[in-house]
Amino acid sequence: EVQPIISSTQETVETVRGTAVFVSKHLVDPVLKANSALRGLGKVVGNVEAIRKAAGFAAAAAAAASVTGARSQPQAAATEDDPQTQEGSTGGASGPSEGDPTNSKSKNLDKGENK
Known about the structure:
By secondary structure, the chain is an all-alpha fold. The chain contains two helices and no strands. The termini are far apart.
């Protein structure tokens, strides 16, 4: 009585195993491969779009530079060593410097007065 049940169970297990292999081979694998291919294609399209935008930006910058490039020179950035940017040399936030002709102290020194 037990032997036929064991035999039937083994046949069922073999059938389930065969079905699982068939489904995996003919359904799951192709779906995964298609999904992978579509994701890769999406990445390529995204990269092409980014390259196209960068090329458009570079072309626009080159066109703008060619129109104004002959007429204007790029100005150098101000540095700490630049006397025009140092505080006090042009009567900035710290007030006029000693050599500044608008400085009342230097006017008094020129007249011989010392305050």
